[in-house]
Structure formats: C-alpha cells, structure tokens
Write a structure and sequence with these properties.
Order of helices and strands: HEEEEEEEEEEEEEEEHHEHEEEEE
Strand content: 15-25%
Strand order of the largest sheet: 11-12-15-21-16
Mean pLDDT: 92
CATH class of the largest domain: Alpha Beta
Largest sheet: 5 strands, antiparallel
Oligomer: single chain
Structural class: alpha+beta
CATH superfamily of the largest domain: paralog of FGE (formylglycine-generating enzyme)
Low-confidence stretches: 1-23
Number of strands: 21
CATH architecture of the largest domain: Alpha-Beta Complex
Number of domains: 2
Shape: elongated
C-alpha cells in the first residue's frame, strides 16, 4: 500500500469512527502520513499531520507517540528509531473547544538490524580472519574489446549478475591464519627471502591445500558456534566482481595508460596516486617475495591485495576462453572436473599486465609455486 493510500485509509477510518455514537461537531479527525515504513536502524521517519476538523473549530495541539517511548507535540515531526524492532505510532489531536481525536494505524514501522559490513571469525589462538560484505550487483567480466593488454583467455567480455550479497576475505589468507588451523606446512615452510611473518600471505599452496583449509575452517566455526559452515573458495565471477569493486577500468584504480605494462610505474588513472600505491608487482618488489597483506591501498569495497602480491586460487575449472561461460555467480565447473583450476590477481613477480582485474591463469589442483595463495568467501 502506498503512503497516500495509507493516509486516506487513516483519515477515512477515523472519520467513520466519528460518525458513530458520541460524535459531535467540532470533534477533530486525526490522521497522519509517514514517508517510509521500513528501513535499516537507525531509521528516521518523517511524519505529516493529516488531521482535520470542521470550520467552526480548529486543532490546537498534537500529541505523537512513536511506539518506542518517544513523544512529540510538533505538528509534523521526524523521529529516529535507533533500535531494530516493530513500532506502532499513534497521534492524538485536540481542538480549541476541547474534543480530541486519535489515529493509530494498522501499518507498523519496521526498523531492521543493520547488516555488518565486516565479520570476524576467531581462529584458534585468537587469530582473527576478517571478511568484508560485498553487495549484490552486475558487471562486465573479462577484457573489453580493444583493451590494452587483452588476452584471448580473458574474452569475450560478458555480463554477469551477482544476485545476492556475499562475504570475501579482506586479505589473502595469512601465514598466522594457516598455522592456527592447519598447524604445519604441506610443501615447506615460508622463509625470509620469499616473505615470512604472521601477516604475510600463506603461499606454496595447492588448490587442494586451499580446499583442506576451508574444510578445517568450517569445522572450527561449527565447533566454536560462530555461525554456519558455509566458508568456501570464491567463484571466479565473484572474485572479479569483488576486485573491480564497481569499476570498468583495467584496474580498480584506473586504466593507468601513461606508461608501459611491464615493470613501469605511472599514475593510477582515476584514483589518486600511482600504480605502486595499490599493488605489489615486479615493478616495485625489490627485494622480491611476498609482502605483508594490507600494506597497499584498498579497493572501493575495502579489499586489499586483490591485484598482485600472491596469486589466488578460486573454485573454478579453467576454460581457455569465456565462450559459454555462465551469466551468474556460480563457479564454472565441468563434470568430471577439468585438469586445471583458475588463479586470479597476478603476483609479486609478474609484469603489471598480468595483475589487471581481468587477469587469470591456470594450474593443476595439486601444483604450487612460491606465489600461490588464496582467500576465502562465504554466503551471508
């Protein structure tokens, strides 16, 4: 029911009441309008008085009860509902001759709980794993026609709909997070020359290793009553959508076309600063190796290191083009599974052209390198 119809019903309902026993000339008929009836708390609602009275009298006071303990005597007040809940507003008006009228609509105001923009999973030993909420939307996936540095395995560009929100790891899974759950390294421990420390990416990991981490993470979440066991690797479509963060340029910070696409540095193109402010790649990574997560600037969704630093495994099988790719968020997997999986984001030892938002690579699920890591995702 739209708000004009709500107002009409309120006034009509009160008028009908006034036609009954005890109704007298000069008795006010109360009614009001609301500019909204639902939203996320804190929810501010503008109330508009719609009361009336016959010509011989006039309304001289308004007594608003907003349903949460708040009151007002202003004719057209606004009120903010701070806490989530369902509220029943009520208006009493009075005439200069003494009679009063009251309106209390059946339509309620619903203030919804705010959706957290970040969620933290507490791993063993108090190690946090932070997830960022990524809102639903649609985007063009892959290289645009004529885009500099375009690769055939990143084409054709196609529309993808992300039909609901999801959460993505704010950072690549770190060495501290890996050890908190898995306790040891499957292919040799990280070392200084390639990046060593709690906040450095976990690397030298296969796709199978990443899946093992997800299983252990879900088991831990259930055992510690931290929600549902719905952690997973992101799909390739979710990954690129999160990386682009609403942009259509080669990087979330711009096209950066003022220099070459090898190890050069130049302006970002749209956002402030230069390429080197946003990612680790071969042009700014001396000495080499991974770097601590979160030391470059985040993208517009608040995600760090989506470009460069460590290559990131995603759920999908690798296909050598996007011909026949799905138009939704789900991972594109064959049955039986194909021989290679997808890696996204480029890495610290690669040229800038391989670190764009659309850049993708592939490897067998049991292969690893010193630059292969991952981040996790989950449904709300």
């Amino acid at each position: 029911m739209n708000r004009l119809l709500i107002s009409a019903v309120l006034v009509l309902a009160t008028a009908v009441i006034c036609l009954g026993a005890g109704c007298k000339p000069g008795e006010p008929v109360a009614g009001f309008d609301m500019d909204r009836t639902t939203g996320t708390a804190p929810l501010t609602v503008q109330f508009t008085d719609m009361s009336y009275i016959d010509n011989a009298s006039h309304i001289v006071f308004w007594n608003w009860e907003f349903g949460d303990g708040g009151v007002s005597n202003v004719q057209n007040p606004s009120h903010t509902y701070v806490a989530p809940g369902t509220y029943h507003p009520r208006l009493t008006v009075g005439s200069n001759n003494g009679p009063t009228g009251t309106a209390s609509p059946s339509t309620v105001i619903t203030a919804l709980a705010a959706v957290p923009t970040e969620v933290t999973i507490n791993l063993p030993g108090g190690v946090p794993l932070v997830l960022v909420r990524v809102a639903a939307g649609s985007f063009m996936m892959g290289n645009a026609a004529g885009e500099r540095g375009a690769q055939y395995w990143q084409m054709p560009q196609h529309s993808v709909n992300i039909d609901s929100a999801f959460y993505m790891g704010k950072y690549e899974v770190t060495q501290a997070q890996w050890l908190a759950l898995m306790h040891s390294w499957p292919h040799g421990a990280p070392y200084d020359l390639n990046g060593f420390g709690d906040n450095y990416p976990a690397y030298a990991l296969t796709w199978d290793d990443a899946k093992d981490f997800v299983v252990a993470l879900n088991t831990h979440i259930l055992a510690t009553v931290q929600g549902s066991a719905n952690m997973r690797l992101p799909s390739e479509a979710e990954w690129e959508y999160a990386c682009r963060a609403g942009t259509t340029t080669r990087f979330f910070f711009g096209d950066s076309l003022d220099c070459g696409d090898l190890d050069e540095n130049c302006t970002a193109g749209v956002l402030a600063g230069d390429r080197v402010n946003y990612l680790w790649y071969v042009g700014n990574n001396d000495p080499g190796g991974t770097k601590a997560v979160g030391t470059k600037w985040a993208n517009q969704f608040g995600l760090f290191d989506m470009n460069g630093n460590a290559h990131e495994w995603v759920e999908d099988d690798f296909h050598d083009s996007y011909t026949g790719a799905p138009s939704g968020r789900a991972a594109w997997n064959d049955s039986p599974r194909a021989g290679e999986r997808v890696l996204r984001g480029g890495a610290y030892d690669q040229n800038i052209v391989y670190c764009t938002s659309s850049s993708r690579a592939s490897s067998a699920p049991n292969n690893w390198s010193l630059s292969t890591g991952f981040r996790v995702a989950r449904n709300p």
